[in-house]
Amino acid sequence: MSVLQARPMSELRRWALTTLFVLGAIATLWFALIVEWRLGTPGPLPLRGDHLMHAASFAALTLLGHLLWAPLPVLSGVMVGAGGLLELVQGPVGRQTDVTDWIAGSAGVLVGTIAFVVIASVLALRTAAQAPDKGRP
Q1: Which one of 39, 46, 89, 130 has the largest count of C-beta atoms within 10 Å of its C-beta?
Q2: pLDDT band at 49 (very low <50, low <70, confident <90, very high)
Q3: DSSP calls for the chain
């Protein structure tokens, strides 16, 4: 059991995080499938504005998903798969399928997972520091 699972989450906090996750997923689908989003041309690195959008949206969704449901390998794998599926679906709806967008989304999943691990570690350290020392008389 993770530290986050051991700490009960209030219904209001769970509702707020779930709402953010759902709104973020809707926004990601909206921008990926409907809105033509141009944020400039590639610079010296092969990185475009839409790559940053993919990475940021998948990082946020992954972090929220981990905070809500916490199974690291499963949720991270699902998010990487969802990014690939999103790219495959773009072709039939008239958008350009781009493997580099999937890579950017996968990098975002990694960032979101690392952020979750850091948050969980900090909470574990705080919990351990606040626990009474059982070795002292």
Answers
A1: 89
A2: confident
A3: --HHHHSPPPHHHHHHHHHHHHHHHHHHHHHHHT---------SSS--HHHHHHHHHHHHHHHHHHHHH--HHHHHHHHHHHHHHHHHHHTTTTPPP-HHHHHHHHHHHHHHHHHHHHHHHHHHHHHHHHS--TT--
Predicted confidence (pLDDT) per residue in 17-27, tens digit: 899 999 999 98
Boundaries of every domain in the chain? 3-39+47-129
Distance CA 115, CA 76 (A): 12
Both tokens assigned to 93 = 């709806």
User: What CA–CA distance (Å, rounded) separates 105 from 94?
Assistant: 20
